[in-house]
Design brief:
CATH architecture of the largest domain: 3-Layer(aba) Sandwich
Structural class: alpha/beta
CATH superfamily of the largest domain: HUPs
Number of helices: 19
Oligomer: single chain
Bound molecules: zinc ion
Length: about 525
Protein backbone atom coordinates (compact mmCIF):
# COMPACT_ATOMS: atom_id res chain seq x y z
CA UNK A 1 0.00 0.00 0.00
CA UNK A 2 1.21 3.44 -0.93
CA UNK A 3 2.69 5.54 1.87
CA UNK A 4 1.02 8.88 2.53
CA UNK A 5 2.26 12.04 4.21
CA UNK A 6 -0.28 14.61 5.38
CA UNK A 7 0.29 17.92 7.11
CA UNK A 8 -1.58 20.78 8.73
CA UNK A 9 0.03 24.21 8.67
CA UNK A 10 2.35 24.93 11.55
CA UNK A 11 0.07 27.15 13.59
CA UNK A 12 1.37 30.60 14.37
CA UNK A 13 1.70 30.99 18.13
CA UNK A 14 0.11 34.44 18.20
CA UNK A 15 -3.21 32.77 19.10
CA UNK A 16 -4.45 29.87 21.20
CA UNK A 17 -6.07 26.88 19.44
CA UNK A 18 -9.47 27.90 18.06
CA UNK A 19 -12.11 26.54 15.71
CA UNK A 20 -10.22 27.45 12.53
CA UNK A 21 -7.13 25.52 13.68
CA UNK A 22 -9.32 22.63 14.80
CA UNK A 23 -11.07 22.33 11.48
CA UNK A 24 -7.89 21.93 9.44
CA UNK A 25 -6.45 19.56 12.03
CA UNK A 26 -9.61 17.46 12.16
CA UNK A 27 -9.86 17.19 8.35
CA UNK A 28 -6.28 15.92 8.26
CA UNK A 29 -6.94 13.51 11.12
CA UNK A 30 -10.10 12.20 9.45
CA UNK A 31 -8.15 11.53 6.25
CA UNK A 32 -5.39 9.80 8.19
CA UNK A 33 -7.85 7.45 9.91
CA UNK A 34 -9.62 6.81 6.59
CA UNK A 35 -6.36 5.94 4.82
CA UNK A 36 -5.06 3.76 7.65
CA UNK A 37 -8.29 1.75 7.67
CA UNK A 38 -7.50 1.02 4.02
CA UNK A 39 -3.99 -0.17 4.77
CA UNK A 40 -1.91 2.90 3.88
CA UNK A 41 1.00 3.75 6.17
CA UNK A 42 0.40 7.43 7.02
CA UNK A 43 2.68 10.04 8.58
CA UNK A 44 0.76 13.02 9.96
CA UNK A 45 2.61 16.23 10.83
CA UNK A 46 1.35 19.25 12.73
CA UNK A 47 3.14 21.78 14.91
CA UNK A 48 3.83 25.43 15.61
CA UNK A 49 5.43 28.33 13.76
CA UNK A 50 7.23 30.34 16.41
CA UNK A 51 9.33 33.14 14.91
CA UNK A 52 8.50 36.61 13.62
CA UNK A 53 7.63 40.16 14.49
CA UNK A 54 4.15 39.53 15.86
CA UNK A 55 5.40 36.91 18.30
CA UNK A 56 8.22 39.11 19.52
CA UNK A 57 5.80 42.02 19.99
CA UNK A 58 3.24 39.90 21.85
CA UNK A 59 5.81 38.51 24.25
CA UNK A 60 7.27 41.99 24.86
CA UNK A 61 3.88 43.61 25.46
CA UNK A 62 3.09 41.04 28.11
CA UNK A 63 6.58 41.42 29.60
CA UNK A 64 7.48 37.81 28.87
CA UNK A 65 10.63 36.08 27.72
CA UNK A 66 9.97 35.16 24.07
CA UNK A 67 11.14 31.55 24.32
CA UNK A 68 9.11 30.98 27.46
CA UNK A 69 6.07 32.48 25.72
CA UNK A 70 6.34 30.27 22.61
CA UNK A 71 6.99 27.16 24.71
CA UNK A 72 3.76 27.75 26.56
CA UNK A 73 1.61 28.27 23.46
CA UNK A 74 3.21 25.31 21.64
CA UNK A 75 2.42 23.13 24.65
CA UNK A 76 -1.18 24.36 24.55
CA UNK A 77 -1.54 23.29 20.90
CA UNK A 78 0.05 19.91 21.44
CA UNK A 79 -2.04 19.04 24.47
CA UNK A 80 -5.25 20.31 22.84
CA UNK A 81 -4.73 17.96 19.89
CA UNK A 82 -3.87 15.08 22.21
CA UNK A 83 -6.99 15.61 24.29
CA UNK A 84 -9.09 15.77 21.14
CA UNK A 85 -7.78 12.39 19.99
CA UNK A 86 -5.85 13.81 17.02
CA UNK A 87 -3.57 11.06 15.83
CA UNK A 88 -0.51 13.09 14.77
CA UNK A 89 2.91 11.46 14.42
CA UNK A 90 5.10 14.56 14.42
CA UNK A 91 4.64 17.76 16.41
CA UNK A 92 7.10 20.08 14.69
CA UNK A 93 8.41 23.29 16.25
CA UNK A 94 10.37 25.87 14.26
CA UNK A 95 12.49 26.84 17.27
CA UNK A 96 14.14 23.39 17.48
CA UNK A 97 17.89 23.47 16.72
CA UNK A 98 17.69 20.95 13.87
CA UNK A 99 15.14 23.10 12.04
CA UNK A 100 17.29 26.20 12.45
CA UNK A 101 20.34 24.37 11.09
CA UNK A 102 18.41 23.08 8.06
CA UNK A 103 16.87 26.48 7.25
CA UNK A 104 20.34 28.00 7.32
CA UNK A 105 21.56 25.19 5.06
CA UNK A 106 18.78 25.91 2.55
CA UNK A 107 19.54 29.65 2.60
CA UNK A 108 23.23 29.01 1.99
CA UNK A 109 22.45 26.66 -0.91
CA UNK A 110 20.28 29.29 -2.61
CA UNK A 111 22.86 32.01 -1.94
CA UNK A 112 25.61 29.84 -3.45
CA UNK A 113 23.43 29.35 -6.53
CA UNK A 114 22.94 33.13 -6.83
CA UNK A 115 19.22 32.70 -6.23
CA UNK A 116 19.35 35.06 -3.24
CA UNK A 117 20.47 38.63 -3.92
CA UNK A 118 20.89 41.83 -1.86
CA UNK A 119 18.77 44.86 -2.86
CA UNK A 120 17.58 48.24 -1.65
CA UNK A 121 13.84 48.23 -1.31
CA UNK A 122 11.31 50.92 -0.65
CA UNK A 123 7.64 50.24 -0.29
CA UNK A 124 4.49 49.58 1.69
CA UNK A 125 5.08 47.27 4.61
CA UNK A 126 2.18 45.62 6.45
CA UNK A 127 3.10 44.57 9.99
CA UNK A 128 0.13 42.18 10.04
CA UNK A 129 1.39 40.38 6.93
CA UNK A 130 5.00 40.83 8.04
CA UNK A 131 6.02 41.74 4.48
CA UNK A 132 6.04 44.43 1.80
CA UNK A 133 2.84 44.58 -0.23
CA UNK A 134 2.67 45.13 -3.96
CA UNK A 135 0.37 47.88 -5.27
CA UNK A 136 -2.11 45.29 -6.53
CA UNK A 137 -2.48 43.95 -3.00
CA UNK A 138 -3.75 47.28 -1.65
CA UNK A 139 -7.42 48.24 -1.43
CA UNK A 140 -8.76 51.36 -3.15
CA UNK A 141 -8.28 53.16 0.17
CA UNK A 142 -4.62 52.15 0.20
CA UNK A 143 -4.93 49.64 3.05
CA UNK A 144 -3.85 45.99 3.26
CA UNK A 145 -6.71 43.87 1.90
CA UNK A 146 -6.31 41.33 4.72
CA UNK A 147 -5.72 43.63 7.68
CA UNK A 148 -7.54 46.78 6.52
CA UNK A 149 -4.72 48.89 7.95
CA UNK A 150 -2.57 51.43 6.15
CA UNK A 151 0.85 49.88 5.57
CA UNK A 152 3.96 51.68 6.82
CA UNK A 153 6.31 53.25 4.30
CA UNK A 154 9.67 51.57 4.75
CA UNK A 155 12.97 51.75 2.97
CA UNK A 156 15.55 49.12 3.67
CA UNK A 157 18.19 46.91 2.13
CA UNK A 158 17.21 43.26 2.19
CA UNK A 159 17.89 39.85 0.72
CA UNK A 160 15.53 38.62 -1.99
CA UNK A 161 14.83 35.14 -3.25
CA UNK A 162 14.52 35.23 -7.05
CA UNK A 163 11.05 33.72 -7.05
CA UNK A 164 10.13 35.36 -10.36
CA UNK A 165 12.43 32.97 -12.24
CA UNK A 166 10.07 30.09 -11.54
CA UNK A 167 6.80 31.69 -12.57
CA UNK A 168 6.56 29.96 -15.95
CA UNK A 169 7.50 26.56 -14.55
CA UNK A 170 4.94 26.91 -11.76
CA UNK A 171 2.12 27.78 -14.17
CA UNK A 172 3.04 24.76 -16.30
CA UNK A 173 3.05 22.46 -13.29
CA UNK A 174 -0.38 23.60 -12.11
CA UNK A 175 -1.84 23.31 -15.60
CA UNK A 176 -0.38 19.84 -16.17
CA UNK A 177 -1.50 18.57 -12.74
CA UNK A 178 -5.12 19.67 -12.32
CA UNK A 179 -5.37 18.02 -8.87
CA UNK A 180 -2.32 19.88 -7.53
CA UNK A 181 -4.34 22.71 -5.96
CA UNK A 182 -7.83 21.73 -4.83
CA UNK A 183 -10.73 22.48 -4.74
CA UNK A 184 -10.81 23.77 -8.31
CA UNK A 185 -11.69 27.40 -7.52
CA UNK A 186 -8.45 27.83 -5.58
CA UNK A 187 -6.46 26.44 -8.49
CA UNK A 188 -8.12 29.08 -10.68
CA UNK A 189 -7.39 31.79 -8.12
CA UNK A 190 -3.68 30.94 -8.19
CA UNK A 191 -3.52 30.71 -11.98
CA UNK A 192 -5.20 34.08 -12.24
CA UNK A 193 -2.77 35.57 -9.69
CA UNK A 194 0.11 34.18 -11.78
CA UNK A 195 -1.07 36.10 -14.84
CA UNK A 196 0.60 39.22 -13.43
CA UNK A 197 4.37 39.30 -13.27
CA UNK A 198 5.55 37.56 -10.11
CA UNK A 199 7.94 39.65 -8.02
CA UNK A 200 10.85 38.36 -5.96
CA UNK A 201 10.39 37.43 -2.33
CA UNK A 202 12.03 39.46 0.42
CA UNK A 203 13.37 36.78 2.76
CA UNK A 204 15.27 38.81 5.36
CA UNK A 205 14.51 41.25 8.16
CA UNK A 206 17.18 43.56 9.61
CA UNK A 207 18.02 42.76 13.22
CA UNK A 208 17.58 46.45 14.01
CA UNK A 209 13.85 45.79 14.10
CA UNK A 210 13.55 42.04 14.61
CA UNK A 211 15.82 39.66 16.47
CA UNK A 212 13.39 36.78 17.05
CA UNK A 213 14.21 34.78 13.94
CA UNK A 214 16.78 32.53 12.30
CA UNK A 215 19.99 34.40 11.55
CA UNK A 216 21.07 34.42 7.90
CA UNK A 217 24.16 32.20 7.56
CA UNK A 218 25.82 34.75 5.26
CA UNK A 219 24.92 38.02 7.06
CA UNK A 220 24.60 38.25 10.83
CA UNK A 221 22.81 41.61 10.59
CA UNK A 222 19.66 39.87 9.36
CA UNK A 223 17.19 37.19 10.38
CA UNK A 224 15.03 35.07 8.04
CA UNK A 225 11.51 36.05 6.96
CA UNK A 226 9.13 33.89 8.99
CA UNK A 227 7.42 32.22 5.99
CA UNK A 228 10.70 31.17 4.41
CA UNK A 229 11.66 29.63 7.74
CA UNK A 230 8.33 27.98 8.54
CA UNK A 231 7.51 26.43 5.14
CA UNK A 232 10.70 24.38 5.18
CA UNK A 233 9.34 22.38 8.13
CA UNK A 234 7.35 20.05 5.86
CA UNK A 235 10.47 19.02 4.00
CA UNK A 236 12.84 19.00 6.97
CA UNK A 237 10.57 16.54 8.79
CA UNK A 238 11.12 13.97 6.01
CA UNK A 239 14.84 13.87 6.78
CA UNK A 240 15.86 16.31 4.05
CA UNK A 241 18.57 16.86 3.00
CA UNK A 242 20.96 14.27 4.48
CA UNK A 243 18.44 11.49 5.29
CA UNK A 244 15.77 12.44 2.77
CA UNK A 245 12.77 10.09 2.48
CA UNK A 246 11.87 11.07 -1.07
CA UNK A 247 8.95 8.64 -1.42
CA UNK A 248 7.32 10.01 1.72
CA UNK A 249 7.86 13.57 0.54
CA UNK A 250 6.35 12.95 -2.89
CA UNK A 251 3.18 11.60 -1.24
CA UNK A 252 2.65 14.83 0.70
CA UNK A 253 -0.79 16.45 0.97
CA UNK A 254 -0.84 19.87 2.65
CA UNK A 255 -4.10 20.87 4.34
CA UNK A 256 -4.37 24.64 4.76
CA UNK A 257 -6.89 27.44 5.20
CA UNK A 258 -7.43 29.76 2.26
CA UNK A 259 -5.69 32.71 3.98
CA UNK A 260 -2.31 31.04 3.40
CA UNK A 261 -2.93 29.83 -0.15
CA UNK A 262 -0.33 32.09 -1.77
CA UNK A 263 2.41 31.14 0.69
CA UNK A 264 1.90 27.45 -0.10
CA UNK A 265 1.04 27.56 -3.80
CA UNK A 266 3.61 30.20 -4.80
CA UNK A 267 6.37 30.83 -2.23
CA UNK A 268 6.72 27.21 -1.18
CA UNK A 269 6.58 25.67 -4.65
CA UNK A 270 9.17 28.07 -6.06
CA UNK A 271 11.42 27.49 -3.03
CA UNK A 272 11.25 23.76 -3.73
CA UNK A 273 12.09 24.32 -7.40
CA UNK A 274 15.09 26.43 -6.46
CA UNK A 275 16.27 23.73 -4.04
CA UNK A 276 15.87 21.05 -6.77
CA UNK A 277 13.31 19.16 -4.71
CA UNK A 278 10.20 17.67 -6.40
CA UNK A 279 6.94 19.41 -5.53
CA UNK A 280 4.51 18.00 -2.97
CA UNK A 281 1.60 15.92 -4.22
CA UNK A 282 -1.39 18.11 -3.40
CA UNK A 283 -2.60 21.26 -1.67
CA UNK A 284 -6.09 21.00 -0.14
CA UNK A 285 -7.53 24.39 0.71
CA UNK A 286 -10.34 24.83 3.24
CA UNK A 287 -12.72 27.77 3.68
CA UNK A 288 -13.51 29.87 6.75
CA UNK A 289 -15.88 29.18 9.58
CA UNK A 290 -17.92 32.34 9.90
CA UNK A 291 -19.33 33.49 13.21
CA UNK A 292 -22.54 35.39 12.43
CA UNK A 293 -21.14 36.22 9.02
CA UNK A 294 -17.65 37.28 10.18
CA UNK A 295 -14.42 35.37 10.07
CA UNK A 296 -13.55 34.23 13.54
CA UNK A 297 -10.83 36.38 15.03
CA UNK A 298 -9.43 37.34 18.37
CA UNK A 299 -10.09 41.02 17.82
CA UNK A 300 -13.78 40.34 17.16
CA UNK A 301 -14.00 38.27 20.33
CA UNK A 302 -15.96 35.49 18.62
CA UNK A 303 -13.41 32.75 19.14
CA UNK A 304 -14.69 29.22 19.81
CA UNK A 305 -12.47 26.97 21.93
CA UNK A 306 -12.59 23.42 20.55
CA UNK A 307 -11.87 21.62 23.81
CA UNK A 308 -14.63 23.45 25.64
CA UNK A 309 -17.14 22.37 22.98
CA UNK A 310 -16.08 18.74 23.28
CA UNK A 311 -16.22 18.82 27.06
CA UNK A 312 -19.62 20.47 27.12
CA UNK A 313 -21.39 18.55 24.32
CA UNK A 314 -19.64 15.20 24.16
CA UNK A 315 -16.79 13.47 22.37
CA UNK A 316 -16.82 13.35 18.56
CA UNK A 317 -19.59 15.99 18.33
CA UNK A 318 -17.34 18.82 17.13
CA UNK A 319 -15.60 16.57 14.58
CA UNK A 320 -18.95 15.50 13.25
CA UNK A 321 -20.38 19.00 12.96
CA UNK A 322 -17.31 20.44 11.24
CA UNK A 323 -17.13 17.61 8.72
CA UNK A 324 -20.87 17.36 8.11
CA UNK A 325 -21.79 21.03 7.80
CA UNK A 326 -19.01 22.45 5.61
CA UNK A 327 -18.65 21.73 1.94
CA UNK A 328 -14.86 21.50 1.76
CA UNK A 329 -13.30 24.63 0.29
CA UNK A 330 -16.34 26.87 0.85
CA UNK A 331 -17.16 29.04 3.86
CA UNK A 332 -19.72 27.86 6.40
CA UNK A 333 -21.37 29.31 9.48
CA UNK A 334 -20.77 28.24 13.01
CA UNK A 335 -23.37 29.07 15.64
CA UNK A 336 -24.13 27.08 18.75
CA UNK A 337 -27.70 26.77 17.55
CA UNK A 338 -26.66 25.11 14.27
CA UNK A 339 -24.28 22.91 16.22
CA UNK A 340 -26.90 21.77 18.74
CA UNK A 341 -29.47 21.10 16.00
CA UNK A 342 -27.01 19.05 13.95
CA UNK A 343 -25.87 16.97 16.94
CA UNK A 344 -29.45 16.24 17.96
CA UNK A 345 -30.72 15.45 14.47
CA UNK A 346 -27.86 13.28 13.21
CA UNK A 347 -26.18 11.89 16.31
CA UNK A 348 -28.66 11.72 19.20
CA UNK A 349 -31.77 11.03 17.11
CA UNK A 350 -29.82 9.31 14.33
CA UNK A 351 -27.12 6.76 15.04
CA UNK A 352 -27.43 7.09 18.83
CA UNK A 353 -31.12 6.28 18.87
CA UNK A 354 -30.81 3.49 16.30
CA UNK A 355 -28.06 1.65 18.17
CA UNK A 356 -29.88 1.97 21.47
CA UNK A 357 -33.19 0.85 19.94
CA UNK A 358 -31.81 -2.22 18.15
CA UNK A 359 -29.53 -3.35 20.96
CA UNK A 360 -32.30 -3.01 23.53
CA UNK A 361 -34.50 -5.25 21.36
CA UNK A 362 -31.59 -7.67 21.02
CA UNK A 363 -30.94 -7.80 24.77
CA UNK A 364 -34.48 -9.12 25.22
CA UNK A 365 -34.89 -11.23 22.10
CA UNK A 366 -31.68 -12.11 20.28
CA UNK A 367 -30.33 -15.59 20.92
CA UNK A 368 -26.87 -14.93 19.48
CA UNK A 369 -27.13 -16.18 15.90
CA UNK A 370 -29.31 -16.44 12.82
CA UNK A 371 -29.47 -18.68 9.76
CA UNK A 372 -28.21 -16.93 6.58
CA UNK A 373 -30.39 -19.27 4.48
CA UNK A 374 -33.46 -17.56 5.91
CA UNK A 375 -32.81 -14.13 4.33
CA UNK A 376 -35.70 -12.50 2.44
CA UNK A 377 -35.44 -10.02 -0.43
CA UNK A 378 -35.93 -7.11 1.97
CA UNK A 379 -33.07 -8.40 4.15
CA UNK A 380 -30.80 -8.81 1.13
CA UNK A 381 -31.67 -5.34 -0.07
CA UNK A 382 -30.62 -3.77 3.22
CA UNK A 383 -27.44 -5.85 3.40
CA UNK A 384 -26.67 -4.86 -0.21
CA UNK A 385 -26.95 -1.18 0.76
CA UNK A 386 -23.76 -1.63 2.79
CA UNK A 387 -21.62 -2.02 -0.33
CA UNK A 388 -23.37 0.91 -2.02
CA UNK A 389 -22.69 3.13 0.99
CA UNK A 390 -19.04 2.07 1.19
CA UNK A 391 -18.46 2.76 -2.51
CA UNK A 392 -20.12 6.17 -2.29
CA UNK A 393 -18.20 7.02 0.89
CA UNK A 394 -14.86 6.25 -0.78
CA UNK A 395 -15.73 8.15 -3.95
CA UNK A 396 -16.72 11.19 -1.93
CA UNK A 397 -13.49 11.05 0.05
CA UNK A 398 -11.45 10.86 -3.14
CA UNK A 399 -13.25 13.99 -4.36
CA UNK A 400 -12.84 15.97 -1.11
CA UNK A 401 -16.60 15.77 -0.54
CA UNK A 402 -16.35 14.84 3.11
CA UNK A 403 -19.77 16.26 3.96
CA UNK A 404 -21.36 14.17 1.18
CA UNK A 405 -19.78 11.01 2.56
CA UNK A 406 -21.52 11.72 5.86
CA UNK A 407 -24.83 12.29 4.08
CA UNK A 408 -24.52 8.87 2.43
CA UNK A 409 -23.78 7.38 5.82
CA UNK A 410 -26.79 9.15 7.35
CA UNK A 411 -28.99 7.68 4.63
CA UNK A 412 -27.89 4.19 5.63
CA UNK A 413 -28.82 4.99 9.25
CA UNK A 414 -32.28 5.99 8.00
CA UNK A 415 -32.58 2.80 5.93
CA UNK A 416 -32.00 0.63 9.00
CA UNK A 417 -34.53 2.68 10.95
CA UNK A 418 -37.14 2.19 8.23
CA UNK A 419 -36.35 -1.53 8.05
CA UNK A 420 -36.96 -1.87 11.80
CA UNK A 421 -40.24 0.04 11.51
CA UNK A 422 -41.36 -2.20 8.68
CA UNK A 423 -40.27 -5.54 10.17
CA UNK A 424 -41.65 -4.71 13.64
CA UNK A 425 -39.41 -7.07 15.64
CA UNK A 426 -41.39 -6.21 18.81
CA UNK A 427 -44.49 -7.75 17.16
CA UNK A 428 -42.53 -10.77 15.91
CA UNK A 429 -41.37 -11.32 19.49
CA UNK A 430 -44.96 -11.87 20.59
CA UNK A 431 -45.58 -14.60 18.00
CA UNK A 432 -43.83 -17.92 18.82
CA UNK A 433 -44.17 -19.12 15.18
CA UNK A 434 -42.00 -16.14 14.08
CA UNK A 435 -39.01 -16.84 16.30
CA UNK A 436 -36.65 -17.69 13.41
CA UNK A 437 -37.76 -14.58 11.51
CA UNK A 438 -37.14 -12.46 14.60
CA UNK A 439 -33.55 -13.72 14.84
CA UNK A 440 -32.94 -12.93 11.16
CA UNK A 441 -34.33 -9.39 11.40
CA UNK A 442 -32.24 -8.56 14.47
CA UNK A 443 -29.14 -10.21 12.97
CA UNK A 444 -29.49 -8.18 9.76
CA UNK A 445 -29.74 -4.97 11.81
CA UNK A 446 -26.61 -5.89 13.76
CA UNK A 447 -24.67 -6.52 10.55
CA UNK A 448 -25.59 -3.12 9.15
CA UNK A 449 -24.86 -1.39 12.47
CA UNK A 450 -21.37 -2.88 12.25
CA UNK A 451 -21.05 -1.35 8.78
CA UNK A 452 -22.18 2.03 10.10
CA UNK A 453 -19.63 1.91 12.91
CA UNK A 454 -16.67 0.86 10.77
CA UNK A 455 -17.51 3.31 7.99
CA UNK A 456 -17.86 6.36 10.23
CA UNK A 457 -14.77 5.61 12.32
CA UNK A 458 -12.63 8.43 10.83
CA UNK A 459 -15.24 11.02 11.86
CA UNK A 460 -16.68 9.42 15.02
CA UNK A 461 -13.76 7.34 16.32
CA UNK A 462 -15.04 7.02 19.89
CA UNK A 463 -18.59 6.10 18.92
CA UNK A 464 -17.29 3.61 16.34
CA UNK A 465 -15.17 1.84 18.96
CA UNK A 466 -18.14 1.65 21.31
CA UNK A 467 -20.30 0.14 18.58
CA UNK A 468 -17.76 -2.60 17.86
CA UNK A 469 -17.44 -3.32 21.57
CA UNK A 470 -21.22 -3.49 22.00
CA UNK A 471 -21.40 -5.95 19.07
CA UNK A 472 -18.89 -8.12 20.93
CA UNK A 473 -16.32 -7.78 18.16
CA UNK A 474 -12.77 -8.72 19.05
CA UNK A 475 -11.48 -6.04 16.66
CA UNK A 476 -11.87 -2.27 16.67
CA UNK A 477 -13.12 -0.27 13.66
CA UNK A 478 -9.55 0.81 12.88
CA UNK A 479 -8.56 -2.80 12.11
CA UNK A 480 -9.57 -2.50 8.46
CA UNK A 481 -12.34 -1.43 6.15
CA UNK A 482 -13.10 -5.09 5.27
CA UNK A 483 -14.94 -5.23 8.61
CA UNK A 484 -17.58 -2.94 7.08
CA UNK A 485 -18.78 -5.74 4.80
CA UNK A 486 -18.12 -8.66 7.12
CA UNK A 487 -20.98 -11.19 7.02
CA UNK A 488 -21.51 -12.26 10.60
CA UNK A 489 -24.20 -14.67 11.65
CA UNK A 490 -23.18 -14.90 15.29
CA UNK A 491 -22.88 -12.06 17.77
CA UNK A 492 -21.89 -12.28 21.43
CA UNK A 493 -23.31 -8.94 22.44
CA UNK A 494 -21.86 -7.00 25.36
CA UNK A 495 -24.23 -6.97 28.35
CA UNK A 496 -24.71 -3.19 28.29
CA UNK A 497 -26.44 -1.06 25.65
CA UNK A 498 -24.13 1.91 24.93
CA UNK A 499 -25.41 5.47 25.17
CA UNK A 500 -23.53 6.94 22.24
CA UNK A 501 -24.93 10.47 22.07
CA UNK A 502 -27.17 12.41 24.41
CA UNK A 503 -29.55 15.07 23.21
CA UNK A 504 -27.91 18.43 23.87
CA UNK A 505 -29.32 21.87 24.61
CA UNK A 506 -28.21 25.41 24.00
CA UNK A 507 -26.43 26.69 27.08
CA UNK A 508 -28.54 29.03 29.19
CA UNK A 509 -27.15 32.53 28.74
CA UNK A 510 -26.91 35.12 31.49
CA UNK A 511 -29.63 37.13 29.84
CA UNK A 512 -32.19 34.33 30.00
CA UNK A 513 -31.42 33.52 33.63
CA UNK A 514 -32.18 37.11 34.60
CA UNK A 515 -35.70 37.08 33.16
ZN1 LIG B 1 -1.62 42.84 5.97
Amino acid sequence: MQTRYITTPLYYVNARPHLGHSYTTIVADVLKKHLMQRGHPVTFLTGTDEHGEKIEQMARTSGRDVKEFVDEVAQDFESTWQQMGIDFDIFYRTTQPEHIRKVQGALQTLKDRDLIVFREYEGNYCVGCERFLTDSELTAAGTCADHLKKPEHRKEANYFFLMSRYQKRLIEHIEKNPAFVQPEHFKNEILSFLKQPLGDLCISRPKSRLTWGIELPFDSNYVTYVWFDALLNYLNATGWPDKFNLELWKSCTHFIGKDILKAHAVYWTTMLMALDVPLYRQLQVGGYWLMSGNKMSKSLGNVVRPLEIEQQFGRDTLRFFLMREMSYGLDASFTLELFVNSVNAHLANGIGNLVSRVLTLCQKNFKGSFNPASLTDADRKLLGARQTALTAWDQNFDNLKYHQALKVWGELVTQVDLYVNEMKPWALAKDPTQSERLQTVLGVCLQVIQTLGVLVYPVLPNAAREIMKALGHSKGPEAGIALALEDRFEFKLAPEVPKLFMRVQLPVTEETTKT
